Amino acid sequence: MITSRLIRLAIPAVIVATVAAACGSSSKSPTATTGAGASTTAAANVSGTLNGSGSTFQAAYNQVAIQNFQQKNSGATINYQGKGSGAGQTDLANQVVQFAGSDVPVPAASLSSFKGGSILYFPTVLGPITVSYNLSGVKTLKLSPPTIAKIFSLKITNWNDPAIASDGNSGLPNLPITVVHRSDSSGTTANFTAFLVKADATDWTLGTGKTINWAGNTVAGNGNSGVASAIKGKSGAIGYVDYSDAKAAGLVWAQVKNEAGNYVDATLAGASAAAASATVNANLTYDPIWASGSDAYPITSPTYIITYTKYSSAGTVALLQAFLNYILSSDGQKLAGTVDFSALPSSLDQKAAAQVSQIATG
Question: Which of 74, 137, 175, 317 ranks highest by number of CB atoms within 10 Å?
Fold first, then answer.
């Protein structure tokens, strides 16, 4: 198995998994799975090409899932471009791609712009959004939501500010804070700012969304990896980065005070605890941000593959169903931890797997 660090460091802007071999002798349709505990996976020998784009948060998982899926389906080619959740939603709406990766649902007002009709959400994995920082010699940092809100809205501008010290930190340097954020339309931005709105709407007044009107003297990075790189390259920097990218970049991150009042580390176990208490909507979207529970990590992000309900090509339907069945099978979900994501709760995984058959030709 390729290590998560090597995968994350090597991940290209465009994930292109191309296999030249033709289909084998079998022509079976993909076999549906029954959730994370299932032993079956999509049957081999589906073929064709799928294109997807969107979330950089899920890109590392998509890469390893594509690689493993194509080892089992030698006639399949799946391309995924990590360019941000907003761009992925736009590409799917315009039928540039067959599926989109997104960490947030499509706004209700935008649904009418989807040229292919109604859409489906398939949760795939989940993970923490870290509050990563660059302070030489500081390996432990505790931050409460009010302090985070003030830092990212530039109400706190130096690391020796008394408000940071009051969270249980001592000996921090007299050093200006450099805030780093996403430059692209981003589900990670939407989920990070949703946390600030839920946890401290008094101090955080910039709202929530895939884009934010950040102050001009902040630093922007493209994608999660771009933010991670900017933090690593600037002493005094702080920014929000998904756990997988933060680990791959060798960043350190703060413990964040959760809804129960506990300072918790960004861990896969903490993300799973947050997801366990989240309410799942009828369309399979859910919100683990600021979830209850003593161990829940408060900035936990879901992520989805979004598809149309109907496609004109039966081949596209068969390949898309097979790929989703693989991701939602026990084999696909086991890959999550290898690239620093949490697998879905089994009940949610089973609901998503049962929904795959709703993708049809029409």
Answer: 317
Q: How far apart are CA 165 and CA 286, in angstroms?
A: 35
Does the predicted TM-score (pTM) go above 0.70? yes
Tokens 């690689």 identify what position?
67
Q: Are 309 and 120 in contact (CB under 8 A)?
A: yes
pLDDT digits (tens, 9 = 90+) for 318-350: 999 999 999 999 999 999 999 999 999 999 999
> In the structure, how many helices (H) and strands (E) does the chain have?
12, 15
Token pair for 11: 């991940």
Q: CA–CA separation, 290 vs 302, rounded Å?
A: 13
49 Rama class: left (phi>0) / alpha (psi -120 to 50) / beta: beta
Helix (H, G, I), strand (E, B) or coil at 301: strand
Q: Token pair of 252, please?
A: 């350190």
- In the chain the first and final C-alpha atoms are separated, in Å, by 39
Three-state SS annotation for 306-344: EEECEECCHHHHHHHHHHHHHHHCHHHHHCHHHHCCECC
Sign of CA dihedral 7, 10, 14, 16: negative
Closest CA to 56 of 144, 135, 152, 127: 127
Q: What domains can you pick out in the chain, each with its CATH number?
A: 4-126+301-361 (3.40.190.10), 128-193+204-257 (3.40.190.10)
Q: pLDDT tens-digit profile of 178-209? A: 999 999 999 999 999 999 999 999 999 999 99
Range in 44-48, 164-168, 241-245 the model is least confident about:
44-48
